[in-house]
Design brief:
mainly alpha, 3 helices
Length: about 70
């Protein structure tokens, strides 16, 4: 593969990874069908990693854990 193409692919991957690693989800603003949030108002999670960890941390919390996952 030509070096300039490899470099462009590498640059695109780097930009995408930086976007993903800095993308925050403000879960305190997420509302259920009744308009209620199940997270602290100021809570934000980095997409994927922190979101995944938060959901996994609630697996053993019967109804509350399932509600947060939904």
């Amino acid at each position: 593969m030509p070096a300039d193409i490899v470099q462009k692919c590498s640059d695109a991957l780097s930009v995408a990874e930086n976007y993903i690693s800095g993308y925050n989800i403000y879960v305190g603003n997420l509302l259920d069908e009744k308009g209620k949030t199940h997270f602290p108002k100021d809570m934000k999670l980095l997409s994927h990693w922190n979101l995944r960890d938060e959901l996994k941390a609630n697996y053993n919390k019967t109804e509350e854990g399932l509600t947060k996952q939904k």
